[in-house]
Design a protein that fits this description.
Blueprint (H helix, E strand, L loop, with lengths): L2 H10 L4 E2 L2 H8 L12 E3 L4 H14 L3 E4 L18 E4 L6 E5 L4 E5 L4 H10 L2 E2 L12 H6 L7 H4 L6 E7 L5 E4 L13 H4 L8 E8 L1 E2 L3 E9 L2 H15 L3 E8 H10 L13 E9 L6 H15 L4 E4 L3 H12 L1 H6 L8 E3 L5 H15 L4 E7 L4 E7 L3 H9 L1 H14 L24 H14 L12
Parallel strand pairs: 2-4, 3-4
Antiparallel strand pairs: 1-2, 5-6, 6-10, 7-11, 8-9, 8-10, 12-14, 12-15, 13-14, 13-17, 16-18, 17-18
């Protein structure tokens, strides 16, 4: 064992220093299977002080560091490179709920808590932590914050960065920033926490956070709607927002090919309508009153929408089991795609008003360039975030398409940029879009980002090769 590994074992204990290649394997491959690297070791510290000690030791040896939570990154942000020089710092043992402040509506948690654990702790206190993702059972809150995760309730509650009041961070020199403030008003200079939220572990390692809680909804209305086209979906969103205001917490869109894949590959999945529509919308209303009459409110909006043809058909969940089944159709969209091989994936955002234009123009351009293309489109229409994925049903043709992913990306990303959008809405840049982003950000923006990186991490040892 090298001197570095011996000293790391002294910090975290022999049982939490993983050097055997077989035991390391789950930490070295990303969720999508696109990236696979090597490392000197996987280190599993138990607390913030151990994280800081590991960072100081690795910096002293000039060793790169790769922070990792639940290893559910979709852009390779938590995967080391192939050089084998890095040490992966797994935060899974930092999994303590530190403090619940009921009157302040805040929850202080460590970075290794799963999102589901955070949600459950809030629910046990009759509160809501609204961040919700399909991977919530395995993703960790530190990773959610480091990537500024979005999810299905951004429409009402905002992205991950909107749900944080304070952070504890181990900096690239091993110092600990104790920024766990639980204040909603703190006008004393730069909002430092925002530098680390969405930085994907390149400026420091988030070890704990103070999270904002909300009142728990006591009544919900969840409905699956058929609409003829994206224009109708955007018009319907406008109506629901006008009539329901903050009661509208989710507004999701799925194309016919997307729903067809879910029905084909996810056991127990059933279409809630008489036939698979050209486009589906999943909406959810929530209210803190148990007798809010949300079903009646939704029906009052839907009745004229059906008469006008804005909505073709509708099914409202009448039980919790039906509600869960509707959400399962949406949440399993990504999993269903995995059953049919690799696709060229895009996580993009455009202004809500331009979603129909993006979908029509992107479809036309791609089908002209790649005949026979299958386009799987779904996402969070309420905040303009679409997951727009391309593949071909035939395995050989699809392999050829993957080889031309750069051309596919160029068509999609150039259009997104033209429409005033972003090529990464909620998944981050990681390794996947690290070089691509330079085409769409100005030289000044890139220079400012590089200056920040250099100021925090002059040796470039903190998650190198990600974002920049």
């Amino acid at each position: 064992m090298t001197k570095l590994l011996t000293e790391l074992a002294a910090i975290v204990g022999d049982a939490h220093l993983i050097t055997d290649p077989a035991d390391q394997a789950p930490y070295l491959r990303d969720w999508r299977g696109r990236y696979e690297g090597r490392s000197q070791a996987i280190v599993r510290p138990a607390n913030t002080e151990e994280v800081a000690a590991v960072v100081r030791l690795c910096v002293a040896h000039g060793v790169p560091l790769v922070p990792q939570g639940g290893n559910t990154s979709l852009c390779g942000a938590a995967t080391p490179d192939e050089s084998g020089s890095a040490v992966v710092i797994s935060l899974q043992r930092l999994n303590r709920i530190r403090y619940l402040d009921f009157d302040n509506d805040t929850l202080t948690v460590e970075a290794g808590c799963t999102l589901a654990e955070v949600q459950a702790t809030a629910a046990a206190a009759d509160r809501l932590f609204p961040l919700s993702l399909a991977s919530e059972g395995t993703c960790r809150i530190g990773g959610n914050l480091s990537t500024n995760a979005g999810g299905v309730h951004v429409l009402r509650y905002g992205n991950a960065r909107d749900l944080v009041l304070g952070l504890e961070v181990v900096l690239p020199d091993g110092l600990i920033w104790h920024g766990l403030r639980a204040l909603r008003k703190d006008n004393t200079g730069y909002d430092l926490k925002q530098l680390f939220l969405g930085a994907e572990g390149t400026l420091g390692i988030i070890t704990a956070a103070v999270l904002k809680l909300s009142p728990r909804p006591r009544s919900l209305c969840t409905a699956w709607l058929a609409v003829p086209n994206p224009e109708a979906a955007v018009a319907l969103l406008r109506q629901f927002r006008s009539e329901c205001g903050e009661r509208l917490s989710a507004f999701e869109l799925m194309s016919q090919p997307t729903l067809a894949l879910v029905l084909r590959h996810i056991p127990g999945a059933q279409c809630p309508l008489s036939e698979v529509p050209p486009w589906s919308v999943l909406i959810e209303l929530g209210d803190t009153r148990a007798d809010a009459g949300l079903d009646e409110i939704a029906e009052a909006i839907l009745a004229p929408a059906i008469e006008s043809g804005l909505v073709l058909d509708a099914a409202i969940a009448r039980s919790e089991a039906q509600r869960v089944a509707l959400w399962a159709l949406r949440e399993n969209a990504s999993e269903a795609q995995r059953h049919e091989g690799v696709s060229v994936k895009h996580d993009v955002s455009v202004p809500v008003s331009r979603i129909p234009e993006f979908l029509h123009r992107a479809d036309a351009a791609l089908l002209a360039a790649f005949p026979g293309l299958r386009i799987v489109a779904f996402g969070h229409v309420g905040d303009g975030n679409l997951h727009y994925n391309c593949s071909k049903p035939d395995a050989d043709a699809n392999a050829a398409l993957i080889g031309e992913r750069g051309d596919v990306n160029r068509i999609v990303h150039d259009l997104v940029h033209e429409l005033g959008g972003s090529i990464s809405a909620e998944h981050g840049l990681g390794q996947l879009k690290r070089d691509e982003i330079r085409r769409y950000k100005s030289e000044l923006e890139m220079d400012l980002m590089q200056r920040i990186k250099s100021a925090f991490d002059p040796k470039c040892l903190m998650n190198p090769g990600k974002v920049l």
